[in-house]
Write a structure and sequence with these properties.
The complex is a heterodimer. By secondary structure, chain A is an all-alpha fold. Chain A has 14 helices and no strands. Chains A and B meet through helix 1, helix 3, helix 4, helix 5 and helix 6 of A and helix 1, helix 3, helix 4, helix 5 and helix 6 of B.
Chain lengths: 293, 268
């Protein structure tokens, strides 16, 4: 702190501290505290605010625990998000390995650039592309029908569509951390393992993956968090039977008109995500400093 | 080459083709559907080639209105996040080891918070203060996490800063403010431009956070998502196609510039 003042003088130093304070206190801490406050209070008409019924309780959170449908959707969102993270990892790992270890400088540059193209256009349009592709009378069904792989059109909207769209949307968040991690692995380690007779499978399992652990953990954590908090993919690619937890939250706010319960649900989602992030990082022994590269 | 190697090679080739097909086929189909007469955007069946959807996009006043809203939001987000993000990076780098890693965790925490939660938290706080959803809240909510990206990019650039430059300027009699303005800021300029660019993109592309704090204002992403629900026509595809075209041209220009500078480096 004193370094800051020594370097920039009183005026600028104070300005910088004020800006950072306004951000962390006003835009990060205060909103979250208010959300917790909302979550713990009952939903009352204005006349009863501050009255005898306006007391803190865990009712809104217990409501989620006791309401069977919402609870089921919550757990489904958790495991489906984990599944999205796992599938995204499977899709990205070979590409990340190839880019980091085998590709030439120009190949890497071109592929990385090409990879970013879908990500310059926004998530809604990326999801829309899948919405068009997976439509009941859409191109994918027409293609599979013409090949004779399926006999009648498949309803892709639902869990399958959501999974495909989400994996697509978060590829980059998985690929870049893993690529960065594998890139720092010395080629001679792989050669040494091969010379000692290790199979390809074993080289990856015992040499590459342990080395890239931090990158893999980072990619998985981000993908899980983004998937669990996603609204657009389930809203567009889902079906009534594949509702996502964020859709329930949205309904409490803008259709159910119970902001307190909505805030409680959002709080549960936040705690879940933070828990998954911290536990995953602890297991992989990665510090938060390494997460955001 | 052994049989096992050949199988491995074939599998890898198949993977590469599948990967890029997965990545680009949806975009290609979305783009091509722009030219199909069919009212619902698709490429099967092909009902005839047309350019009518570009006209439809041109005359879709709601689309332009929402694009304008997105630009306004992006503008205010940029002028909010650049000063705060830079200040955060400077405060962070002036801290010592323990305090620094703690502050770092605090400062990246919005990136680990789901977007919907950021939107909700902002919404309930400002309702308590009597402010409803709208452009102002969209800017506040988006800025709260876009600052993190700016902070990270400026911090990365600061690590390459040589403090003797500042000492030299101070030794020559410059005030601390002058040193900041004439030495540090010019050094940070490339990172500030890159961060500003990223902030604009992040702002325009955001949906999850914006959805909760938008009030009655409709930025582009919300408009498109609503269109999908209420009457999607290939006019949206025309917009997507234009955005893809700009992106591809930008990528090609970037690659040409990169090769030129690489060639220049090799020549030196």
């Amino acid at each position: 702190m004193s370094d800051l003042y020594r370097r920039f003088g009183g005026g600028l130093g104070t300005l910088f501290l004020a800006l950072v304070g306004a951000w962390l206190a006003g835009m990060v801490l205060a909103p979250n505290v208010m959300m917790i406050d909302y979550a713990l209070r009952p939903n009352l008409p204005p006349s009863q605010l501050g009255g005898p019924n306006d007391v803190y309780s865990l009712d809104n959170i217990l409501y989620l625990a006791n309401e069977g449908v919402h609870r089921a959707i919550f757990f489904k969102t958790v495991w489906a998000s984990a599944l999205v993270a796992f599938i995204t990892f499977l899709v990205c790992y070979p590409m990340a390995f190839w880019l980091a270890q085998n590709a030439t400088v120009n190949q890497t540059a071109i592929v990385l650039l090409a990879l970013t193209i879908p990500f310059w256009i926004n998530e809604v349009l990326r999801t829309l592309a899948w919405y068009i592709l997976l439509a009941f009378r859409g191109p994918l069904n027409a293609f599979l029908l013409s090949l004779g792989i399926i006999d009648e059109p498949v309803r892709w909207y639902g869990d399958g569509g959501v999974l495909a769209g989400m994996t697509y949307a978060y590829i980059l968040f998985m690929l870049f951390p893993i690529y960065n991690a594998i890139e720092s692995l010395d080629k001679s380690q792989i050669e040494a393992a091969r010379d000692l007779g290790a199979s390809t499978w074993r080289i990856h399992w015992r040499v590459v993956i342990p080395h890239a652990k931090a990158g893999i953990a980072t990619g998985c954590v981000f993908t899980f968090m983004l998937a669990a908090g996603s609204y657009v993919a389930p809203a567009l690619l889902g079906a009534p039977g594949s509702r996502w937890f964020t859709e329930i939250i949205y309904n409490w706010f803008f259709e159910g008109g119970d902001w307190n319960r909505g805030a409680a649900y959002a709080l549960v989602l936040l705690v879940l995500c933070l828990a998954v992030v911290l536990i995953t990082l602890r297991i992989a022994r990665v510090s938060l400093t390494e997460v955001a590269k | 080459m052994s049989a096992a190697d050949r199988i491995a090679r074939a599998m890898f080739g198949f993977y590469m083709v599948a990967f890029f097909l997965y990545l680009f086929a949806p975009l290609a189909i979305m783009g091509i559907a722009t030219f199909n007469t069919s009212r619902f955007p698709t490429v099967t069946p092909w009902r005839g080639t047309t350019l009518q959807w570009f006209d439809a996009l041109w005359s879709d006043s709601g689309m332009w209105q929402s694009l304008w809203t997105s630009f306004i939001v992006a503008f205010f987000v940029v002028i909010t996040v650049l000063p705060i993000g830079t200040a955060a990076a400077l405060v962070l780098t002036s801290l010592h080891a323990r305090a620094r890693s703690f502050m770092y965790a605090v400062m990246v925490s919005p990136l680990l918070t789901p977007g919907v939660v950021i939107g909700i938290a902002t919404l309930v706080l400002w309702r308590q203060l009597g402010v409803g959803g709208g452009v102002f809240l969209i800017v506040v909510a988006q800025a709260s996490f876009i600052i993190c990206y700016v902070m990270l990019m400026i911090t990365a650039r600061l690590q390459r800063f040589d403090p003797t430059q500042e000492e030299a300027a101070l030794g020559l009699g410059a005030s601390k403010f002058m040193v900041f303005r004439r030495v540090l800021l010019p050094f940070l300029k490339p990172a500030l431009i890159a961060a500003g660019f990223l902030a604009i993109l992040q702002s325009i592309e955001n949906y999850n956070t914006t959805l909760f704090v938008r009030g009655f204002d409709t930025p582009l992403t919300v408009y498109i998502a609503t269109k999908v629900r209420t009457g999607l026509t290939p006019a949206v595809n025309a917009l997507a196609l234009i955005m893809i075209a700009i992106t591809v041209l930008g990528a090609i220009a970037y690659e040409i510039a990169r090769r030129r500078s690489a060639a220049r480096m090799a020549a030196d």
